[in-house]
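User: I'll paste a sequence; please echo it back and then give the predicted structure.

Assistant: Echoing your sequence first, then the prediction.
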Amino acid sequence: MLNASREDARADGSYFDSYGGVGIHREMIADETRTGAYLAAIEAHADELRGKVVLDVGCGTGILAMFAARAGARKVYAVEASGVAKHARRIVKDNGLDGVVEVIRGRMEDIGEDEIVEKVDCVLSEWMGYALLFESMLPSVIDARDRFMKPGGLVLPNVATIHVAALSDMKRYDDAVGFWDDVYGFDFSSLAARTRRDWSDDPPVSTVPRERVVSDAAEVARIDCATVRFEDLFEPTDGAFELVMVNGLVLWFDVDFYGHASLSTSPMKPKTHWYQTILMFERPHALTRGDRIVGALSTAPGAKPGTKARPPSFLAPTGPRATASARRRAPFLEGSLSRRALPLSPPATPRFRSRRASLSARLSTPLRF
């Protein structure tokens, strides 16, 4: 069954328009780590999905919705705000699944009970952005879950975590900043400061060679997708973040599907289309025994679904900094990690003092240099 009655103009917007082309969807589908993890998760839950109703939030070309249909779902509502929805409808029909998968074009928040006419057993979505939250799909998933999912339903993925480790990459720094010292015999070094500011406004996203990661990874946030609330994503927490001085931080995320499948964007794992997000300090600082960087790591989705998120940042009140400006209210995650410098003999693992138990943000692994 196809729903083509919604006015396409209602879903317009630069964010959704960026997903209207085919190229970005090819890149995502071709990411075997991503697509394979979702396929494995859906197949692992086939018994729970058979004969049930699924809601795919941000279905794109419909690949996940069709996975669910092939796994035996009785009905799949596939919601997509961008213009690629028309291609999804054609693909669904070409594969003989239009009797199961209904593609609805529109923002999830605009979809009413006249279009999704029953409660669903599973909310499925590939909502993750760079550094997990640098994309505004999680609020849409929360909306879908709260309005349409039956109590105790499945949310795929069910857990998402953010990880951070220290980065030592002087070549990256020298290529970006040192470039301006001599440009065909001219001194352009005045642009070096602007280059460093640009790192804060638009953190680089690229593959980080594993040898550039100079510490163990620390889990700095955990989201339970079945219980997290929209307001939790902007809830400040107490604490500071400390680690031995280096010239940047590298961020990545993992998601889990009830233990049946997982997806990691770690630099230690195969490359994905999310790569890693790099927070470069404005200037490099030598790794010195006893030296520390004190500050707060913060990131959040856009204030409204479909709006661009504020980039992740690391705020250091003193010493090195990797953020454009101080924040009075650091959103979502701002946790504490206290470690001695070399050699490490860590005390008991500290926890983020979040006011929302549903976030359960904590540090699981000591940073080890």
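The radius of gyration is 22 Å. The longest strand covers residues 159-167.
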